[in-house]
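Re: weekly structure request thread

Next one in the queue (173 aa):
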Amino acid sequence: MKKQATSRQSVSADLYDQPGHLMRRAHQITVSMFQEEVGDFVSPKEFAILRMIHETPDVDQVRLARLIGIDTSSAALTAAKLEKRGLIARTVSTVDRRLLSLRLTSEGEKLLDDTVNGVYRMREKLLSPLTPAEQKVFMKLLQKFVHLHNDESRAPLWTQVDAAQPAKRKAST
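Done, posted below.
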């Protein structure tokens, strides 16, 4: 039987049982641990962008946004900021002159090398209160949740396979 919410319920009977509230808190905790382990010279979003550019050199800003699940304007603004800091280079795409291709600079490669261990420490710290079996279940359920709700996002995530399919690229532009 579904639980009916009323305005008279206690906070713990409603708010603290809401998945959205718990995910917001989990995000706050994750960002805090990221800054503790990595530092505040790069944000989690900037790290994701640097990591994807490293994995996909000369990726254009639109495809980059879709590969990490952020909106294209946020990707463009963050890329401009990273370029200004000397961490990436943006050049006109040889495939489509309307697009900018992104590549890490040597400073960007160094920053990525300097931060990746902190990201792995953060992951270990985040998951350490759980048993190894719980960690596997938690990650599997979290991945499933994100995958099943991907299309409801304002910035749906693409896999490398999705990005390689011309029909999918045209359908979402």
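The CA atoms of residues 94 and 116 lie 30 Å apart. The longest strand covers residues 88-92.
Next request, please.
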